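During the second year of the project, the team shifted from modelling isolated chains to modelling whole assemblies. The rationale, set out in the original proposal, was that interfaces cannot be judged from single-chain predictions alone. As a representative example for this report, we include one of the complexes processed in the last quarter. Its constituent sequences, exactly as entered into the pipeline, are reproduced here:
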Amino acid sequence: MNIFEKEIMQRVKELNCGAVYHENDNSVSVTFDGNIIAEIRGEIPEKTGELDVQESEIFLHIRRLCVNVANYCAAYENGEPIKNPNLSDGFRRIFKIGKAEMAARYDRKSGFEFVVWGDNENPDFFVSYDKAREKFAALSGLIDREKIFDDEELQALYYCVFVTLEINDALNEDMIELLREVKRKLDIAISKNLSAERGEENESAV
Amino acid sequence: MIKATIQNSPYCTEIRFPCSETELSKKLGEIKMNPEHLAPMAMVLEIKPAELSMLTDCDVSLNALNFLGKRMDGMGKEERNQFLAALSSGETGIGSGLKDIINLTYNLARFTLVEDTDDLESVGRTHILNVQGYISESESNDHEWLSEQGVKLLESGSGIETDYGKIYINKDVPFKEVFNGTTFPAYYCEMNSVAEIVIEYDNLTEFVELPCEDIVIKKALCRLGADDILDCKVEVDSTRDISDEWSEKISEVEKSKDLFGLNKLLKTEDILLKREQSMSIFKKEIARRLHGEGYAVSNDGDWLTVMLNGTSVVKISDKDILYTDGNFYDKDKAAVSPLSQTVRGIYDYCSAYEKAAPLVADGLSGNYRCLAEFNGTVLAAKYNEEFGFEFVTWDRTYGGKSICQGKYFEDYTAAKENFATRSGLVDKDKLFGTEELEQIRKCVDFTARHNGDLNFDDCECLKKLNEKISDNIPEQQSEAPEMSM
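Output from the structure prediction step:
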């Protein structure tokens, strides 16, 4: 079993799915509620047949998860070992811009751990790749850190847009349309953050 | 860089190499040694990188350690990995003394480091480049031959596993002794040197770069075993960026042997040399951008001078430092902050560009440099003296040799943001445009004013959010009148 297969079997648990590895063809079957809903071969998931609405939604999450896991597994496997007195052994560099660096470490038992640090900043450790990348983007100056909202802030923004849409009678059609689009985007951002959070929690539990 | 804890029992101190002679003298003083010792030795208690740990608990020459630090500083990333990989393996037969380690820096061609064994062509290319020191155009284009070289190397079975990849010993390349353990080989690395001098005595040779601290010359004489410079042969090896008149003056040292006198002259009269320094990209870009924004800018050698409101003068150094001299009036203070922000922004992309390697991609025209690459997305920049910078993000094509889907920017911040979302570093659903932020800010404001259920903490939280959003909105929009929400 390669790192990707091992990792994906662990990560599908976040979606309340189970996973079985087949040695004969190196595939992973993903089950939900006892039914096999996807087969993953060579990092690509395929539906196993007709899926109901809930299963289809989970399948979409599996697809996204495969891309994400494949990305960080490849980044780790191509990364060079790093020596940093503030880090324990085994970390490999994934990305570096200026003085900001992101590295990953893999352990067959506990899975992946990511770390991000910059000039004069202590290393920040993450189990979620999404959170690590986001932190790196801010630390390296690619994105102004003021432009990134955390979970609490996103939820507060969602609430404000929701309240405005509900009780502000002075909104015209264009503004309502624009705010609905913003609300939808906030909803997606919150759900993505939640799934990253779930990853952190599950890994911590493991 | 080398970081070491050195001891002159019972005193110890931490020191980084390479360092200046002044710094070394200061550290010698800290461990109660003569700060002007010409051949200081100390015991190494701890050393980094860890690959140098064979020096731990040994008395080593601090001059030699400093020389090694300079050699390591001059290495590129690949050379450094190659060096550390060769050092980390006990099977490479290099030896464990400081002399052997310094000699290794001159013998890296004997060791090919393979980090990725999957790409045979790349393995072959790395190996040929390492062994030959160059690769001809016909060899470079002969992909099959390069792959064969890669296979040959990998199948030799002599690879030694290290933390950096597999290292192969090229037995046909002899390990040469360049450093004899006493006098240092030529290694010119001082950015500001004007002349390189060769000193010979009793069949030994030393090299010094002028101007330098006098102790550098004294140490060179000490290593040669010469009591006096007059007993040595002195030759000017090379000179840099100086007028013929000065070149002649420097050559006179070959007869007079007054090296200390010449050194003093070069230190004190450096201004007279009028070294022709081309204006850095940073300064050219500052001048171009600030002219465009209506500032009066002039170049006066070390500084760019910017006139604010026709009265106050602000000077900008090559390292983005702004300073004001006597010609500055309090009324212009407010104009410094936006100028400072602009300069900071320009410095960011100029320094990133100057440090970046050329972007290599099939069919790419124009001199682009790769500022960052992640997950198959490239952020590149091209500089033109007349038009300034162009930034672009691309996707690598399958196989990674070419690029496609270019998106072009004049604004570095926008290019970075596009790179961050396009490469997947940041989810684009989590970033909001100016118009979206403006609407969100109004919603936050509306909720704070009209929702009576909010407690004090909620209101404080919304106030902070409002401020954060306002910081993200360009000034004109954030000051736009409120809509009837």
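The two ends of chain B are 60 Å apart (CA to CA). Chain B has five domains: 2-169, 195-273, 281-332, 356-428, 434-478.
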